[in-house]
Amino acid sequence: MEKKDLRSIVGQEMLDFLAKHKQKPFRAKQVNQWLWERGATNIRQMKNLPGTLLDVLEEAFEIPAASVQNAQTATDGTSKVAFEFHDGQLAEGVYIPSRKRVTACVSSQTGCNLNCAFCATGQLTHGRNLTAGEIFDQVVAIKNMAEEQGNRLTNIVYMGMGEPLLNYDNVLQSVDYITGKPGLEMSPSRITVSTAGIVPGIMKLADDKVRFHLAISLHSAIDETRNRLMPINKKYPLDALSEAIQYFHEKTGERITFEYLMLRGVNDSLDEAAALARFCKSFPVKINLIEYNPVEAFDLKPSTQETVNDFVQFLEKRNMIVNVRRSKGQQIDAACGQLANRNVNS
Questions:
Q1: Which domains, and CATH codes, for the chain?
Q2: Which of 97-101, 152-156, 195-199, 313-317 shows the lowest mean pLDDT across its residues?
Q3: What keywords sit in the KW lines (predicted)?
């Protein structure tokens, strides 16, 4: 009989299992402490549980934890970590240290089917959703990496491989384990979930009144341009996206962030800046302008510094909050849009 993933057994299902095997209900809390506070990857590690319970747990369940297959470190201190899962699938996470924070960038899928015109992950056609436990494993591994270097993990961004809102339940469950008790007890304000603009998912986040930050990969506020860059825009065009963002802000009070790749001759004109300014009138927002990281498969180039400066000045004159983000980890293909399971066996 195939064993179930112990980390997928929650709430009443766990209590029913314990009752069936004549175990006290408080054992559920102990199991969860081992899973989500101590990061147990083997049932026999749960040493404060009675042997009879360990036996029945081991007979029915397993803990298919992710393993670190490979890690590469760039000269700027950024590390790209290749994770292998129980079925041989791979995904990558990134450890990003900086002067004020240490960030874990984690994946929610082992590939992505959105086919954005600038993203290497979209070249991976065979993928699946990651479980909440598999997402949690990435955070724990990068947290341990930080601590080994004398640092403390301060922030988590769901900006790795995959579209988080197409794996909604597992992503939110993983956030619960990261922020909850039993769990890592991190503040939701330290977590950002990024989406390409899945409108129903944004609306559901609003209804669920999530407390983490929401970032949207926008890259253009002109439908024609965004259609070319992000095919998902044909399904959820900018008008629908704007309504979803307004709804999210009304429900949560949160200011969202736009991620905007600066692509030479594509979306970096002052006409594009004007369209972006108009689009942002309906809700409070901050804008991160991101340096493009070249990908061999695509004939795209980063904007010139002069063009970026002009773009920033145009937006700031309209009282918009704008940050220019310099990417880290390009040397090892660990920067935004570059994750594609390259060199995982090196």
A1: 4-62 (1.10.150.530), 67-332 (3.20.20.70)
A2: 97-101
A3: 4Fe-4S, Cytoplasm, Disulfide bond, Iron, Iron-sulfur, Metal-binding, Methyltransferase, rRNA processing, S-adenosyl-L-methionine, Transferase, tRNA processing
> Order of strands across the sheet with 102-105?
67-73, 79-84, 90-97, 102-105, 155-158, 191-195, 213-217, 256-262, 285-291, 321-325
Alpha helices, DSSP H, located in 109-167: 132-148
Q: Which residues are annotated as a binding site?
A: 112, 116, 119, 162-163, 194, 217-219, 293
Binding positions for S-adenosyl-L-methionine: 162-163, 194, 217-219, 293
The reported pLDDT for the residue numbered 335 is: 47
What proportions of the chain, in percent to the nearest 5, are helix, strand and coil? 40, 20, 40
pLDDT digits (tens, 9 = 90+) for 119-145: 887 677 668 999 999 999 999 999 999
Active site residue 272: no
Token pair in block for residue 156: 């988590």
C-alpha span between 339 and 346 (Å, rounded): 15
Catalytic residue status for 92: yes
51 Cβ neighbours under 8 A, 6+ residues apart:
none
* The token pair that represents 103 in the structure block: 């960030």
Which is catalytic among the residues 254, 259, 280, 336?
A: 336
User: How far is the C-alpha of 299 from the C-alpha of 205, rounded, in Å?
Assistant: 35
Tokens of 107: 């994946």
